[in-house]
Every structure is written in C-alpha cells, then in structure tokens.
Amino acid sequence: MIISELLQKENMSRYRLSKESGIAMTTIADICSGKAELDKCAAGTLYKIAKVLGVTVDFLLENNEERSDDYRCSFETFKSNICHHVKDLGDLDFIIEILETDEIRKLYDRQWFCESLYLLAMIDYLSRINGLPICTNYNDIRCQKLEKPYFPMGIVMSYAATDDESIKCEAIENAIPEFMRFNIVENEIRNVF
Fold first, then answer.
1. Which CATH number is 7's domain given?
2. pLDDT at 34
3. What CA–CA distance (Å, rounded) separates 25 from 164?
4. pLDDT for 149-163, tens place per residue?
5. Within-domain flag for 161
6. Which residue, of 62, 90, 111, is where some domain finishes?
7. Alpha carbon distances (Å) from 122 to 70, 71, 80, 149, 188
8. What is the structure's pLDDT at 32?
9. pTM value > 0.70
10. How far is 60 from 118, CA to CA, in rounded Å?
11. Are residues 169 and 102 in the same domain?
C-alpha cells in the first residue's frame, strides 16, 4: 500500500500521520491495511494525508497498487482536488503548472471532457481575475461544452430534497462565467478545507 511505503520512507508512524493530518487513527489504520480503498476515500481525507506526506493526491491515487492503469476519480473529487491545488500553489503558480504540463490537452485527448473543460475554465477564470491574457493553445477546446448543465452535488441534493427548480436557476445565475461557458455550474472555487 502506497501510504505504508511513504510512512516508512518518512520514518513516520500511523499515529503521527493521524495527528498531523487530523484524520482519525482508525481511518489511517484501515487505509494502511487495505480495509479502506484509497480511491473510495473522501477528497478531503486524501488531501490531508497527501499534504502531511509531502505528495499530491494524484500521486497517491496514481501509485495505488489496487487501481487500474486508467484510474478516474469522480468528477466531484476531481473538482475538489483542483480547488485544493489552486489554494496550495496560488493562482499564478497553478496556471503555470497546468500550462507547462499541458494537462488540459492530455485530459481532452483521453476523452475526459468534464475534467478537461473544468481545468480550462479554471485557467481562464484565474487568468481573468489576475489580469492575464488567455492562453490561445486551447481555442479548439473552448468551442466545446457539456451536453447539459453539470450541477455541484450540493445543488443536486437540495433540488432532490425540495423539488424547487429555483435552486438550479439561482445556481446558474450565480455561476462563474468561464465555467458556465462549458455548461459547468460552479459558484465557488476558494471555499475549500
């Protein structure tokens, strides 16, 4: 298990990882023993563990022995990971990293359209609020959009509980334009824990 290997490499106990990450010792033990699957853990849990171990969430998931070579987390987890990454790096370093690695194109070529469009929207949004020019390398992708609006899980659950269409309408009205261009309803990228 990758967590156990990293703990050994860092000469860190499970207890210390639990204390420094704020993740319950039982959860850490379950992950290390394989009782809890890494790719089924909440994004926040993975993020806290990764931060203490000095790696990224992607590194943990990519090096998980039990996953397939074409591992794809849920879109909600992907969005959360991206927002945490922006928070950690800062807007400009995040933009530079994504453009240098060409991650948008890689995701698009894998036909992971939701992820590719979300990442492109994030780059465009961060560029706008920081007064930077838009990178033109992705103009072909900017012509695409999801077939129907993709709402955050919180909006979907609120709508399901109340059957109040105004919840969706308000979310669309308040969505960040760069995300809405791709039919992704995103209102907040900064409020991550």
1. 1.10.260.40
2. 81
3. 41
4. 999 988 999 999 999
5. yes
6. 62
7. 24, 22, 12, 17, 11
8. 86
9. no
10. 21
11. yes
pLDDT at 130: 97
Is 49 in the same domain as 108? Answer: no
DSSP output for 143-187: T---SSPBPPHHHHHHHHHH--HHHHHHHHHTS-HHHHTTTB---
Q: What is the pLDDT of residue 127?
A: 97
Q: Looking at the structure, do residues 151 and 129 belong to the same domain, yes or no?
A: yes
Domain that holds residue 172: 75-180
Residues 58 and 121 in one domain: no
| Low-confidence stretches of the chain (pLDDT beneath 70) | 1, 64-71, 192-193
DSSP 35: S
Residue 165 exposed, middle or buried by CB count within 10 Å (0-12, 13-18, 19+): exposed
Instruction: Determine the Cα–Cα distance for residues 42 and 9; give it in Å rounded to an integer.
Output: 24
